[in-house]
Amino acid sequence: QEFTLRVADSFPTTHPYSINTKAWLDLVTKRTDGRVAFSYFPAEQLAKSADLLDAAENRLADIVYAAPLYLSDRLPLSTVIALPLIGNITDPQKLNDAFNELALNELNEAELLPQNVRAIRTLATAPYQLMLRGDKIETLDGLKGKKIRSSGGVQERSVAALGAVPVAIPAPDLYPALQRGTIDGSLFNTPTAAGYKIQEQLKWSTDNVNLGLFPVLYVINEDVWQGLPEDIQTIMMDTAREVVPPVIQADNERHNEFGEALKQNGGGYYQISDAELQKWQERLEPIWDNWVSDLDGRNQPGKKIFDRWTELATQ
Amino acid sequence: MIAGGIVVLLVALIVFGMPIAFALAVSGALGLYLQVGFGPMLGILQTTPYRSSANFLLSTVPLFILMAELLARGTIVRDLYRACYMWMGHIRGGLALAAIAANVGFAVLSGSSTAAAAAMSRISMPEMRRYGYNESFSLGVIAVGGTLSIMIPPSLPLIIYGVLTETSIGKLFLAGILPGILTTLAYILTIIYKVKRNPEIAPATERHSWSERMSTLPRVWPAIVLVFLVLGGIYSGAITATEAAAVGAAGALILSVAFGGLRWKGGYEAFDATLRTTAMIFAIIIGAMVFGYFLTITQVPQALITMVGDLPLPPWGILLIILLFYIVLGFFIDQLAIIILTLPLVFPLVQSLGYEPIWFGVVVTKTAEMGLVTPPLGMNVFVAAGAANGRVEDGFRGVSAFLVGDFIVLALLVLFPQIVTFLPSLIN
Amino acid sequence: MVRRVLAAVENLFGWFGLLALASLMLLVTADSGGRYLFSEPISGVYEVSELYLMVAIVFLGFAQTQRRRGHVRVEMVLEKLPLPVRRVLEVLYLLAAAFVFGCIAYMAFRSGYNNIAAGRWTTGVFSIPTGPSWLIAAFGASVFTLRLLLDAFDAARGHSMAAVSHTPEGIQS
Ligand code: NA
Ligand code: NA
């Protein structure tokens, strides 16, 4: 083999994204007839989520998972897809394609290449939903004063804008906090939440709201990338897209399992009415404006990225 | 090759008296330099120390220590121990038993054994010394008692195991209860046995009269109020397990000032000592993380696991080797790091051998618990000794007898998996 | 002179550490109390605790802890070695640790500088800059490095062997 690359991410090996990354790497090795080999370090074995981008910059690893929401001080533009209620696409494949288009072009140019890394593989989770341990809440009035866990950033703003009380809780405390009623619910996406097993402590979850997507970028150190022959580059990019459908299917299966677990607790998935969603959107739109003006104020192309994403996420 | 050399270097440095935190950081950094070069080594040194401290979950470490310091500088703890002594003083080893009991209480609150060892060391070591307890025995009791915090739920390793393997955390917690009780029993029996054999390690006093005993009770209530405040706070859902440390410290401050005679000087000393103990513990955590990243990147542990899986042995044979592997790895690496590092490879293997995920999670946690007190890297021994100005080697000597009990409990969990699986099976 | 300045800086850092510890206790208590009693948590406590208070509590205490010989070690073998050997080992240990923590300090300064230069802030409801938090780590690690170097110098001259004998509170410089 000619190249051995270290790949690091933070997903547990049982997580669909980790399984999918392994499949991608194996496919690259196979397609290049073994010219590229990988040593893969999942589950934060090489660095914590927030440090993975640094790991790619200082060559501790060559390819890393960069989570814009954990690095929102350094990858603010890439958090655009976490903004709530943008666009009307619900098909996960189309959402993934749209984010891939944005990342590989605009985001690479505006924010990743200046930090000497390049996005070569992207994923977008299922949309964030409102999950509750008690009775279902269908209106803004019902949400008022409810304690909802958010993982910070845009999500925290969304929870506050909807009139609920945003609560910051470290992930390992989430399960017991739901169990004992420290919080009334959480914003989360079903496939990831299933990994934390919080469905055991939940009754209801919306399934028709898009409170934002969680962006996943796999970036490669730009010097390493430029050192790879063009045919290998092409194979890596092509295979990265090729392996996406299986991960979407795995996410769907988890979504269904999650729903089954909710039913066992006497709840299930439920929908927010269109009229009500209209009201939610009015509350949430200022977050969009805030996101744009904040970035534009720091000489970043916030408006341009926001418009492009709106365009890609709407058909 | 490099991995072996660096492990030998680490052991040599620790044995020859390099401060443990430095030994871990230096040998880890050297190993990283040899394995991946200077730039990546600097990269690890850039992010690891910062990220290990900028961590909300770990805020329980300084805050629980502060709670212990505040209680210990006032009279509240002394009154509590005096009461224990009046009631149980005629039983040999009464203070050691009280320390285990207090650790069980702490374990129900907290999932961090480091915080437990530091807090209980500050609280109970001075009292055990005051009553003439053997130094190594006392340190052993505290170090090993602190490990109960990860066996008895809530438990940080069980949560991380649950997330990494997608096993139900609720069931894991249930599964940990009986092994936690069994472990507690093993420690109690070990204390009773040791004190029977060497009565001088735990001097007893005369039996106190009932009126003397009753007279101690009115002074115990501040401690009980604090326990109820924190426990009640957690179980009513008012606060999370992490926040409990802050509420406990604030409660200890108020109660100690109001009822424990704590004044400016004692308060200052409590905060000051907390900072030093915290720096000592985090220096070791940082060193252990750096060293852990080095071992990971050599991929030697991973290769060893793959090798074990390919051995032509019956399932129980492979399982035994895996458990042995966990115990040996526990000599050198931080317990959470081991779980994160090995589970991606070990978990699928164990599943393919037909073992139950919940059972294996508890068994792994049991080995992690043992690793906390085995030399040369025995976090709880370092912390217990460091927090009480004791000697590390005394701590390791004191722990050895308890490890026998731990091994027996581990064997029981392996031979009778029902001990683990019984409670979770009830909620299906 | 160097000794006195270093000790003064360490003491100053110690006070900041105390302040951070007290703030951590009060803020987290107030946050959880406010959330439970009035459904009014304090926005930003999580971020401030993590990025500033914890970093200050940990990093600002390193040097003082070294000055008072608070970093635990195994002494059994060391005590049996002849004094000159002990002295050589001690100097080597301190220099090696100083090198590693010097690297940590340098890299933390770089991160802090980069974050400040790029104007990086957190993005929650309560937004705080991330750069200064790295600088706290950098200053703490720098003073710790200086303390290790000074101790190495003392050990080489044969002073301060308190590091090897067991006197936890050690000599005050
Ligand atoms: Na516990
Ligand atoms: Na150990």
Describe the structure.
The complex is a heterotrimer of chains A (315), B (428) and C (173). Chain A has twelve helices and eleven strands. Chain A is an alpha/beta fold and 315 residues long. Chain A has a six-stranded mixed beta sheet with strand order 7-6-8-5-9-11. In chain A, strands 2-1-3-10-4 form a five-stranded mixed beta sheet. The longest helix of chain A is centred in the C-terminal third of the chain and has 24 residues, at 274-297. Chain A is globular. In chain A, 57% of the residues are buried. The model of chain A has no long low-confidence stretch (mean pLDDT 94). With 428 residues, chain B is an all-alpha fold. Chain B contains 22 helices and no strands. Chain B has helices spanning 2-15, 20-36, 38-53, 60-73, 76-88, 94-109, 113-130, 135-146, 148-151, 156-165, 169-197, 210-216, 221-235, 241-259, 264-298, 300-309, 315-332, 335-352, 357-371, 379-387, 392-415, 418-426. The radius of gyration of chain B is 22 Å and the shape is globular. Chain B starts with a helix and ends with a helix. By secondary structure, chain C is mostly helical. Chain C has one domain (2-170). Helices cover 72% and strands 0% of the residues of chain C. In chain C, helix 1 (2-38) packs antiparallel against helix 2, helix 2 packs parallel to helix 6 (131-156) and helix 5 (83-117) runs antiparallel to helix 6. Mean pLDDT of chain C is 90; it is low at 162-173. Chains in contact: A-B, A-C, B-C. At the B-C interface, helix 1, helix 2, helix 3, helix 4 and helix 14 of B face helix 1, helix 2, helix 3, helix 4 and helix 5 of C. The complex binds sodium ion (NA) (2 copies). One sodium ion (NA) binds at residues 107, 110-111, 149, 152-155 of chain B.
